[in-house]
Amino acid sequence: xxxxxxxxxxxxxxxxxxxxRNTGDLTIDEMNEETGPDRQRVLAxxxxxxxxxxLLTEPIDGEVMDANPNLLGIAQYAVGFNNIDVDAATExxxxxxxxxxxxxxxxxxxxxxxxxxxxxxxxxxxxxxxANRYKIWGPNLLLGADISPGGSGEPKxxxxxxxxxxxxxxxxxxxGFDMKIIAFDPYAPDSVFEEDGVExxxxxxxxxxxxxxxxxxxxxxxxxxxxxSTEEFSKMKSSAIIINTSRxxxxxxxxxxxxxxxxxxxxxxxxxxxxxxxxxxxxxxLDNVVLAPHIASATRDTRGKMASMAAExxxxxxxxxxxxxxxxxxxxxxxxxQKRVKGS
Length: 344
Ligand code: DGY
What we know:
Blueprint: E1 5-8, H1 14-23, E2 25-28, H2 39-47, E3 51-54, H3 62-66, E4 74-76, H4 86-91, E5 96-97, H5 104-119, H6 122-130, E6 157-161, H7 165-173, E7 180-184, H8 190-196, E8 199-201, H9 204-210, E9 213-216, H10 230-235, E10 241-244, H11 253-261, E11 267-270, E12 289-291, H12 300-318, H13 335-343
Parallel strand pairs: 1-2, 1-3, 3-4, 4-5, 6-7, 6-9, 7-8, 9-10, 10-11, 11-12
Helix pairs in contact: 1-12, 5-7
The chain binds (2R)-2,3-dihydroxypropanoic acid.
């Protein structure tokens, strides 16, 4: 029996590699770990594969899918899948899977890491210290913002934009800081707000106006692209800190740089960028930002588990059974899918 062929666009942690190697002949595109495989290599890789394991760095569109009419599925190594044209996949009878759930806690931890680092100026303090500038304790040195009621005795408000798994995990971590929580998510049922005792914002505005900190946890789509832009920044408190661990294009990054420069808002903690890995002009020169290289889910355990989940999804695609984490399950009912699995 011929072994199935698996094409992985870039290397992933060992637990996933082991499953994939035990399943079939694995090709890992290792052309350039810094830039990832170029388009031609992805097309060639897909042409020679029965299943594609993709990373969020590679655009997977109709052209890639059409490179191989016998491809059985796309297993994305990430919870976010905005790099994949899922409608095009469904149209072509191609199941797409992702790795949800496992990274919710890890990502929520990191949103808090950025929030605390931004509020309490940790990178600034670190840079100051290692530059040997710490000569004497000072009452006015690196004055940050309270997260708990602190000196003012006033509870702070955390606004959560996008109240799914990760947004809720962020809320859970706020309880030790005695914060008020307000969340906006037009798609979450009332029950989750009631269960968590969280105020539901019917529109984004009340959240913008009330929050001392805003943490973003929405999916990227046409509705959420530039959800935060000039108008939204103008409605925020001038002391507010915005945290983004979702997808870069949710924030209009050029508008953010202006808002930060002009003191319309207080600070930003970012893990993702609009044109990643490029950053908007002026962003890296600001002293009220904390910037990270898209590492919110980057712990050894979580990235390992994401790898095994992606691999298990790939195995399901190869075995022509519903993948455990299929993002377009309606595909299994389509004629295009039936044709594809019969033809392979
Ligand atoms: C995801 O999974 O979508 C993150 O951005 C990377 O882990």
